[in-house]
Write a structure and sequence with these properties.
Strands 1, 2, 3, 4, 5, 6 and 7 form a seven-stranded mixed sheet that branches. 44% of the residues lie in helices and 18% in strands. It has one domain: Lambda Exonuclease, Chain A. With 292 residues, it is of the alpha/beta class. The protein starts with a strand and ends with a helix. Helix 3 runs antiparallel to helix 4.
């Protein structure tokens, strides 16, 4: 397991050929065709939906605030909080422009206020407890599956304990069991435990920025073993998949490859090579989904 310098949270990092992330694992589960288009064709057309970009702006603010905490070092105190807030706001202004967000001051003010409330609620960690901000980790599962993850915030609550906090911009928090049985956060936990030899305990949490609320779970070795089994199962299925059929669902609205997807775009170059009856079935399924 190795660590490398962090990326900027609102910078798109394309998939590394042959390397799996939690996003790619989840993408294959949801729609094999979207996974294939992402990994084989490099499709990422146009701008992301505005709510995705708004979330990236909030992430940029949180990242900048905690990097500012590192920069202040032992000088950080109660009087430093305005600097904490200012660092977050400057980063959000920059991200708003870079991501071509709408000219909507009220929307920006809402994101800024959410981030400020979270920073006011959470105590700024002691420097010794702050392990990483937007930390990039690499690892190997089953001696053959390369994995890569970016961890929003890595903390050390105790000498033998690593905690990963993931910022989210949705309001509905998953249950503890849903966190435990998922892919993203357990993979982060597995990678963090591999990366930091002192970590005997590992926990993860999702922190909703708009709700200013957190869901926490501590994971056991058994939980991490089951995560490894899930990853192996997904990767083996993907590597054996010679069809990679599209699976229309509510996830289509936030899919990067939607403009080039043959289910949605009959003029897609991929559509010409697909069975017309299959595409018809897919479009019928798409029409049946509520909200489409």
């Amino acid at each position: 397991m190795s660590t490398v310098p962090a990326k900027t949270s609102h910078t798109y990092v394309p998939p590394e050929r042959g390397t799996w992330s939690s996003s790619l694992l989840q993408q294959y589960q949801r729609c094999p065709l979207a996974w294939w288009m992402t990994t084989n064709s490099g499709h990422r057309t146009g701008l992301a939906p505005v709510h995705w970009r708004r979330g990236s702006v909030a992430h940029a603010g949180m990242e900048a605030a905690y990097n500012a905490r590192i920069a202040w070092g032992d000088r950080f105190g109660v009087g430093s909080m305005e600097f904490f807030y200012d660092a977050a706001e400057d980063a959000m202004v920059e991200a708003w422009e870079e991501l071509h967000m709408p000219d909507d001051p009220a929307m920006f003010d809402g994101v800024r206020e959410h981030v400020r409330l979270v920073l006011a609620k959470l105590p700024a960690p002691r420097l010794a407890n702050l392990v990483g901000v937007e930390a990039e980790l690499h690892g190997m599962i089953d001696g053959r599956i390369k994995v890569r993850s970016f961890l929003d915030l890595v903390l050390r609550p105790a000498p033998d304990w690593v905690h990963v906090r993931d910022w989210k911009t949705f309001t509905a928090l998953p249950s503890e069991q849903e966190l435990r049985d998922g892919i993203q956060l357990p993979l982060y936990a597995w990678m963090a435990k591999q990366a930091y030899p002192w970590a005997r305990r590992v926990s993860v949490s999702i922190y909703s920025i708009p709700a200013n609320a957190e869901r926490f779970v501590e994971l056991t070795d058994g939980d991490l073993d089951r995560l490894v089994e899930r990853v192996i199962g997904i990767v083996d299925a993907a590597e054996a998949d010679e069809v990679c059929q599209p699976v229309p669902s509510e996830w289509c609205d936030t899919c990067w490859v939607k403009p080039d997807c043959p289910v949605w775009n009959p003029e897609s170059t991929l559509a010409h090579g697909m069975d017309r009856d299959l595409l018809g079935d897919m479009r019928s399924a798409m029409d049946a989904i509520d909200g489409f």
